[in-house]
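Reviewers of the previous submission asked for a worked example of the structure-prediction workflow described in the proposal, so we include one complete record here. The input consisted solely of the amino acid sequence. No template or homolog information was supplied to the procedure at any stage.
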Amino acid sequence: MERVAGGRTDHYYGKADVTVYRLNRDGRAPAGHSPVFGANVKMLVHGGAFWPTYLKGDNTGLIATDSMKNFIHRETFAFTEYGLEDYCRCLGKKFIETYPQVEGLQVSAVEIPYAGEDGGVAFTPSGPDQAFARIELTRDGVVEAVSGIRGFRLLRLRGSSFRGFVRDQHTTLADRPSRVLHMWLDMEWSYANVEAAFTDGAITSQTRAIVTDVFRSFESGSIQQIIHRMGTRIFADIPEITELRFEATNRTWDVVAERGEELGVYIDPAPPYGILGLTLTR
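From that input alone, the workflow returned the following structure tokens.
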């Protein structure tokens, strides 16, 4: 189920899973960006002109979702920037200008990342973390901007403990003073001013760097403490962000054999897994 922030919220329709790649075939791109811009796009529109389709099957004002897909593909050629937020806004503004029956729409995009090999002409899929953005517009302008990164898979060899938790008849887990920690993390954030979202990807890049730096450098007593530290660091370094939402899962590997903190053999854990959420606001 989707959430629409502005305008009529009793109905929407659109096109999802629209993939597109814009390639700078000469290999050139500004510092911090890649010649490969890949995105998976979802566009949802709403407006009174579409209500007769629900009531009577009257498609007089309806824009076919196949046309939306073609619009996204063709307008990507006209987009010259790199930030997903800028991309979603560009698509949304052009779509509203093109179709007067659209009262509002939501455009979201998930990055399809590729990393360059030496030489500047060869690329391979990267990740697994992917940036995403969700921009909602009405004819008055942008009414909501949300950004985030999904799919972090973070591994720390030592310096993460978990001990001192409740012990009772249900407890079988041993204290771990310095465990191998493997966690997955999704996060998203909102802005105090929606216009602050449009930085051509700079805030997302800065946020990604903070997450990896905190995970690398911070010795923690719990995953909860790690994501809280990430949040406070982001607030300190990026004043444009006003709310942060984290969801982490504990995917720490099961131990086959260990020799202190020198050597270990591990396997993927069987389900179930722990899940942890945190929302921080200024």
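The first strand starts at residue 13 and ends at 23. We consider this example representative of the routine output the project will generate in years two and three.
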